[in-house]
Amino acid sequence: MSILYSKVTAVIELANIVHNYQVLRAASGNPIAVIKADAYGHGLSQVAQVLAGAGADTFAVGTVEEAVALRATGHAHRVIALLGPVEDAEYAALWSAGVIPFLHTFEQLDRLAQLEKDQGEVLPVALKFDTGMRRLGFTLADVPALAERLKAMKNVRLEMVSSHLATADEPEAFSYVAAQAEEFAAIRRELAALGLAHTANIANSAAILGHPDLHLDQQRAGIALYGGNPFHGTEREALGQDLKPAMSVKTKILSVHGLRAGQSVSYGCTYTAPEDKTVAIVAAGYADAYSRALSAKAQMCLKGSRVPVLGRVCMQMCAVDVTGMDGVRAGDDIWLLGGDGEGRITPEELAAWWGTITYEVFCLLGLNKRVFI
Ligand SMILES: *Cc1c(COP(=O)(O)O)cnc(C)c1O
């Protein structure tokens, strides 16, 4: 949460996150709970706490700073920082806060080699390998040098090796998944041949649900924990049917008034009423992370029904069509995401209107104030 002045509230159903965790654990055995970026906007400490209560023992945040913040809430389980250490203070915090870093460069190993001599404890680390994402990571060719460096350190121990899949949620791109998996297997064989014992993970949410052959020792569960179906809109959509979205987002109606035939509403007069209409002005706009890209595209849920957004989304307001609905008043709740009954807005629908993915919808709308139920 970091939007200060807004009428928008994200309602987080923590029980649904626990439900999704149980679905994923039943599917794959040993999911690491990925709670980076404030748990995809759902609340870092709150999500960590309920998942720890449900039996999760390993958590993955983004920055080392986020790991330190999680520790400060009293979190006592294993914490991985997926982005790894970047600045001096983050290197120092690895030992003091007990954070397992993802490492992806030899420079990081150099820094750890300097620091480890002064430490009284062994730091478990994770090596990130690039097998096709081409973002961060060591490669197969780096393994001999990695083995040499790790064996020379006393207070740094290899705990796990990881790689990330670029196309696991795209059924038409499974050959790329297979190629990445093969490369990862070759890396692991080389590590083992050089005497480096480790545990391994490569599966994200899509691979947990759709690639059981890639479950390995652990899995890294992100979007599915929050009820996003990675296979939405594909022929494998049913794989995510048991997941329950955990975030709903509501705000207030500010005004209800008539729009006569021929009158326009909002900036640019992009919507003109073809006949007499009733509009509600809603307290949500792009300053509340309700994107201007939703102008004239999105729908909201009001009293269990769908109402369309008319014209442009402004900074803190937008208009919806409530023609023919009885009893709509200033002060009423209206749902940007979720809501009751038939009119409930799914994360996938909102993402489609927005021109993005559920991940971004959750991260951005979760910047608003949150309540936990
Ligand atoms: C975010 C992230 C995940 C989770 O991916 P989902 O598609 O949300 O399940 C897994 N691994 C890494 C390295 C990540 O950064």
Global Rg: 24 Å
What profile does the largest beta sheet have? 8 strands, mixed
Low-confidence stretches: none
Instruction: Give me the secondary-structure category.
Output: alpha/beta
Number of domains: 2
**The CATH H-level homologous superfamily of the largest domain:** Alanine racemase
Write down the secondary-structure element order.
EHEHHEHEHEHEHEHEHEEEEEEEEEHHE
How would you state the average pLDDT, rounded? 97
Question: What does this 3D model show about the protein?
Answer:
By secondary structure, the chain is of the alpha/beta class. The chain has two domains: 14-236, Alpha-Beta Barrel (TIM Barrel); 247-372, Lyase, Ornithine Decarboxylase, Chain A, domain 1. It is 30% helix and 23% strand. It is built from eleven helices and 18 strands. The chain has helices spanning 14-28, 36-40, 44-53, 64-72, 88-97, 106-116, 143-151, 174-193, 205-210, 347-354, 358-365; strands at 9-12, 31-34, 58-61, 78-81, 100-103, 123-129, 156-163, 199-201, 219-221, 247-259, 264-265, 271-272, 277-282, 299-302, 305-310, 318-321, 333-337, 369-372. Strands 1, 10, 13, 14, 15, 16, 17 and 18 form an eight-stranded mixed beta sheet that branches. Strands 8-7-6-5-4-3-2-9 form an eight-stranded parallel beta sheet. A two-stranded antiparallel ribbon has the order 11-12. The longest helix has 20 residues, at 174-193. It is elongated and about 80 Å long. Bound molecules: pyridoxal-5'-phosphate. Residues 34, 36, 82, 164, 204-205, 220-224 line the site of pyridoxal-5'-phosphate (PLP).
